[in-house]
Amino acid sequence: MKKQTRLSFFSALLALAIASLLAACGNTTTPGSTTSASTPGNPTTSSENTTPTASSPVPLKVTGVDMAVNPPSIKGYKCGTSIKETYTATFHFPANNAGGQVQFDYTTTNGRSSQPASLTVQAGQTAASYAFSWSGQLPADNTAPGRGGVMVTSPNAYTSDLLAPLRPCIPAPSTAFKVTSIDLVASPSLVGHACGTSFTETYTATFHIAPGSAGGTIVFQYTTTNGRSSSANVSLPALTGDTTATYTFKWSGTLSADHTAPGIGIVMLTAPNQLISPPAAPTGLCS
Predict the structure, then answer these.
(1) Which of 36, 97, 111, 151 has the maximum number of C-beta atoms within 10 A of its C-beta?
(2) How do the domains of the chain map onto residue ranges?
């Protein structure tokens, strides 16, 4: 029994000695445990890959279509005028697309009729335009050029808005071009002017035109001698819708003591119809 006690005591002393020796060597780690520490100046690195990578191309898709027309308005055109109306469709695609073919139909008749077409899109291209047109005479009912647009069928389905030029065109004249009457006045008065002095008399002719006419050219002659002599033909233009046109002519010379000059003025119309104005003469007499 005493021998066993002495052995246990010896074992305890040996354990204490080993513990003291380990403490002296600076090893305080408990047997069976581990720790990790970063070396100063050498940070811990992550195993995650942080290198950026390019995104993969996306399939081609039509995301929108903008429509434009030229001319944008036909309000300044007469009905019956021949014009060409151009429609331009601008297709939009996502960025980084793979490119490819766009198949579509276009219309200038609000979809009542259409024509097939296509365009090629390069990889990464975000927009492309396609132009088509309508040509013809502007109808009085303003049904053409109609509303135009596109209907995409591939690579996806997409229908644009339909766009038409502003309207209406100018209606055709409802009345034939005709001068209905002529007014003629002479001025100034001769009162207060001495006979034998130089003088200028002005005659003003006002042509009245049938309302709603297409316009044209008024052709006439005039006289300041009561028809004893007359001018060469004069051409006076009138525009569509004009209801009057004015022309002035003059007499210049010496006021005669017998009061024969300046004489009576008259206008003789030959086109678009024949008509003679009332006579006009200066008022008063020279003295």
Answers:
(1) 97
(2) 64-159, 179-276
pLDDT at 42: 41
pTM higher than the cut 0.70: no
Provide the token pair at 13.
Answer: 């002393």
Of 222, 216, 223, give the one whose Cα is nearest residue 263.
223
For the chain, how many helices (H) and strands (E)? 1, 14
DSSP 203-264: EEEEEEE-TTB--EEEEEEEESSTTSS-PPPEEEEE-TT--EEEEEEEEEEEPPTTS-SS--
Residue 129 near residue 91, CB atoms below 8 Å? yes
Mean pLDDT across the chain: 85
**Dist CA 149 CA 88 (whole Å):** 9
Q: Reading across the β-sheet that carries 64-70, which strands appear in turn?
A: 64-70, 82-92, 127-137
Confidence of residue 29 (pLDDT cuts 50, 70, 90): very low
Which tokens is 126 given? 């975000």
At the second CATH level, the architecture of 179-276 is Sandwich (2.60)
